[in-house]
Structure formats: structure tokens, C-alpha cells
Amino acid sequence: MKRLTCLVLILLGVFVLAAPLKVAFIYIGPAGDAGWTYAHDQGRLYIEKVFGDQIETAYAESVPEGMEALQTIRSYIKRGYKVIFATSFGYMDPTYEAAQEYPDVHFFHCSGYKTYKNMTAYFGRIYQPRFLSGLVAGMMTKTNIIGYVAPIPIPEVIRITNAFALGVRMMNPEAKVRVVWTNSWYDPATEKEAALSLIDAGADVVTQHQDSPATQQAAEEKGVYSIGYNSDMSNFAPNAYLTAPVWNWGIYYERVIREILNGTYKHGNVWLGMKDNIVNLASFSDLVPQNVRTVVEVFSEAIVDGAFDPFEGPIYDQQGNLRVDIGEKLSDEELLSMNWFVDNVEGSIPE
Questions:
Q1: Alpha-carbon distance 56 to 302, whole Å?
Q2: What is the CATH number of domain 19-124+248-276?
């Protein structure tokens, strides 16, 4: 009887040890938005394949920023979830509050800056492939007007818009990047309207920072070029799409989950780039000629090797002030707090 009891206890112990790590993702948009949220969800699906029954994942989509996000986080924790990925800038404060409430839970906030002993701030240097896409736009435009549909005026958006504009200027000093704001991360109707207004104003290349492919669809309808964002959007604009800066979140999520399972994860601030393969430029469409591809390949290799930085000087702002001198480059702190546009951007930053 004692042997049987011991065997039962051992089996129970194995069962407890084999219980899957429960991982939850909080999304600002629908998982099928084809952009930002889609890229994160592809990362979630990737780790499901990698870890199998070692983990159990779940997600909540279209969660508003603010108190509702905190309530959603708490609901997952009450159901036994020990890892929370909050994937929108506006989730930062709710995630930070939850991290202080639940010290035995791992929290990860994407695109913010606050950290805690059990909370990591993580993001990718998407401005690197965004710069490369600017090279493409600068070489492909004929009207020298490039439209940029922007969402919300936070440093992330300003930084990435500037990187794109610097790429444009590198290849075409005469071209301007015209910005229109929608004040939303995901509003396909408003995004399309903004893109159409830019095209009507003469833009023959358009791009966006939002989560939907609405800008791509506008370009397809109007017969101009488009550059996607967050994921390959070629299916939405087969006759317009050129390329897109894209995310490979699965690589980061795999590393994090593996370290948590091993008990070795340390929280902090993480900002990964092209050399880490977290961000990259998607494959070119057939619309992009070889000379453009060659230029992009040269700069891509230089960025990965550390021989070139998109924010190397000289860089001037819209008022003509020298922001970055020759031989210098912006620090991460300056990039993370950026609140000014470079000189070839048309449009203001809302207060």
C-alpha cells in the first residue's frame, strides 16, 4: 500500500510539473487586422508550435487602452495566466499597475518605456527597415510627393516617420513626405479617406503606420504605389505594393518563453533590431526595379553591420535647426523622446 501511495504521489508530482505555462496576449486591434496585431498573433502561433503542450496561449483582441486593459489583464491572471504580453503603447500604465499587484506574474509591455522587477519594456528598431522603405519611395516617386498616413503623435510614430523621410531624402532631396493624422491605431475607413486625400493632392507613393491595409487598398484603387507596414500586405494591393517593414515577433517570444521555462529570465528594457532579425524589410514586389533593390541591399548590410545608422547627421528639423551634427547620431534616449519632424516632412505634430 505504501508503494502504491508513493507511486500516486510521484505521478501527481509529474502532473503538476507538466502543467503548461499559461501565456496571454492583449491586442489593440483584431487578430486578423493584417498589420500590427496580426504580426503579434503570428508570434503567438509560432511559440505554440515551438513549445507544444509546454504552454497554453490565449488572447483578447480589440481591447481599449486604459482601465479596460487593466481589467482584461486581471481577468487572465485570475484564471492562472503567468505571462502577459500587452502589445500597445497605451497599455503601459495598466500593465505597470498590474505588475505591482501581481509580483509572481511576468509582464511584457510593447513599445513603452516603463519597467519593473517583473515587467519588461520591449520593442524593435523598426525605424531601420522603415528607413530602407524610404529609400524605395524616394527612388520610385515621380511627383516628389509621398503620402504618409500617421496614427497618434507619440515619439514612436514621429521617430519612424522621420526614419522613412530620411530614407526618402537620401535618394531624392527634392521629394517631400506629406503627413496626415487619423488619431487612431485602427480605423480602416478614416485611414482610407486620409490616403485618398494624399493621392488627390499629388502623392504617387503612399504608406501608413496604422494596423489595417486600408492605405494599400486606396493605392490599388487609384493606381499609385504603396509601401506597407507591420506585415507583408502585397495581397491587398498586388498592382501597387512595393515592400514593407515587417516584424518577426516569434523569435523574441520564443527566447522569452524558453528563459521563463528555464527559470533564467531577467526583466529589463529590450530594443532589438535588424541584426537580431526581429525587424526586416519584406520581399520586394515585381514592381521594384533592380537598381532600387541594389541600393537597399547595400544600406541593409551596412545597418546590420553597424556601419550605418539612419539617424546619423547632418539632420535638420522643419525649422532649419541642426539637430544632429556631421559625424554624430541620435542616442536611444533621444530617439525614444523624439518630438520633432525632419526638414523634408510636410505637416505638423498635434499638441
A1: 40
A2: 3.40.50.2300
User: pLDDT tens digits, residue range 55-76?
Assistant: 999 999 999 999 999 999 999 9
Angstrom distance (rounded) from CA 243 to CA 207: 10
Q: Give the pLDDT confidence of 155-213 residue by residue, as tens digits.
A: 999 999 999 999 999 999 999 999 999 999 999 999 999 999 999 999 999 999 999 99
Third-level CATH fold of 127-244+282-346: Rossmann fold (3.40.50)
Strand locations in 91-234 (E): 106-110, 119-124, 145-150, 176-181, 205-208, 225-227
Q: How many other C-beta atoms are found inside a 10 Å radius of the C-beta of residue 151?
A: 21
- Asked if domains 19-124+248-276 and 127-244+282-346 share a fold, the reply is yes
pLDDT tens digits for range 230-243: 999 999 999 999 99
Please state the domain extents for the chain.
Answer: 19-124+248-276, 127-244+282-346
How open is the CA angle 160-142-151, to the nearest 5 degrees?
25
Phi-psi category of residue 272: left, alpha or beta, with phi > 0 → left and psi -120 to 50 → alpha: beta
End-to-end CA distance of the chain: 75
Q: 298 phi and psi, to 5 degrees?
A: -65, -50
Which residue matches cell numbers 503603447?
89
Instruction: Say if pTM beats, i.e. exceeds, 0.85.
Output: yes
What whole-number distance in Å separates Cα of residue 36 and Cα of residue 160? 14
